[in-house]
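USER: If only I could read backbone structure tokens as easily as an amino acid sequence. It would mean a lot if you studied the pair and described how this chain folds. Here is the record:
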Amino acid sequence: MFTFDRAVSEGRATQGDNQNGKGDFFTDLLRALLKNCSGKNLSARPPQPGLVFRRHALDAAYPTIGDDVEVLIETKVLGAPKNPRNPSQRNPLGRRGSSDLDKRLKEAGLKTIDLKAEGARRAGQGGGPTGDFVSWLRRCKPSCYLLLAVRVIGEADLALTLRQASAANMVMDGCGIVCYAPDKRGRYILQDVDTQLELDRVLSRICVQLRNLP
């Protein structure tokens, strides 16, 4: 992430490099880690139908072919250093990681609910959403995980990022996050996050689930 961001801070990266380069790298890395751990291949699938919306793009899913998705993984990379090409960016440390997180989490939550609702409809088992909405989400396929890599700048940014990730953890089957912040010399330092949100712990849960699937 530091290598990607250094290209941004030095003005050598385009907006597309920043949005797609880091995001694709993070997704590919997670796929490789889960394959090594579980022996299962994950990849993007053709757009999948929801109950309300006809097409949802998936960052990584298992199985890679067939009618039913068992495990869905959404990935997001947020936060970036100041780009010298963007004079409107006032903060010399760059864009806060939490700036777009609320919108991204709501998008992922809506996708999760819509895909699970369509899965319940196709299963024909009834028992739709009840007063205990979170328990209903946990019972329905596919299992949906949100994995985040967030560059934060300061304690307030970190705190807001973790609050929003905790909220997403109620809608998703799991939300894992890694946060990193620049020090005085610009190097990245990992930040402590809540145990339930630690990326490696959530990856471990996904790996166990994948191992138990055919």
About this structure: DSSP finds six helices and five strands in the chain. Residues 2-211 form one domain. The helical segments are 2-9, 15-38, 101-123, 133-139, 155-171, 199-211. The beta strands are 60-62, 71-78, 143-151, 174-182, 188-190.
